[in-house]
Task: inverse folding
């Protein structure tokens, strides 16, 4: 996105209002509603969702940490949270900036069960924890 768009988000001066607050709310809601968004997904008992934003010169990075209360993984609620937050940012900024792109979206870490793993720093492959 344009630098001026990021500056407008940071200053909370865009026409549609509080972009990051709205994106955070939308992302948390999406994490809790993941099973209804994904047709063949099992229900998830989402215990907590934290969404953080990092503003660069011409980027906004979104990171979600989702904790579930059951044995299923939290990848789908986390992906739902991040992508919905990104779509919300896009929607709220599109009148000011038509150059925005979204992506990539990736899973960095999964922990708490037998298939726990963390993405390698160099970005390729997995290693078991």
Result:
């Amino acid at each position: 996105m344009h630098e001026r768009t990021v500056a407008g988000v940071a200053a909370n001066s865009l026409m549609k209002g509080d972009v990051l607050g709205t994106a955070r709310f939308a992302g948390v809601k999406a994490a809790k509603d993941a099973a209804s968004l994904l047709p063949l997904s099992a229900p998830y008992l989402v215990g907590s969702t934290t969404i953080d934003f990092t503003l660069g010169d011409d980027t906004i990075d979104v990171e979600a940490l989702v904790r579930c209360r059951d044995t299923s993984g939290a990848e789908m609620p986390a992906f739902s949270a991040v992508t919905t937050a990104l779509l919300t940012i896009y929607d709220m900024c599109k009148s000011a900036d038509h150059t925005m792109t979204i992506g990539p979206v990736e899973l960095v870490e999964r922990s708490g069960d037998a298939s726990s793993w963390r993405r390698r720093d160099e970005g390729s492959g997995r290693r078991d924890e």
User: Anything to note?
Assistant: The mean pLDDT is 88. The first strand starts at residue 46 and ends at 55. Strands lie at 46-55, 60-68, 109-110, 117-119, 126-128. Residues 22 and 118 are 29 Å apart (CA to CA).
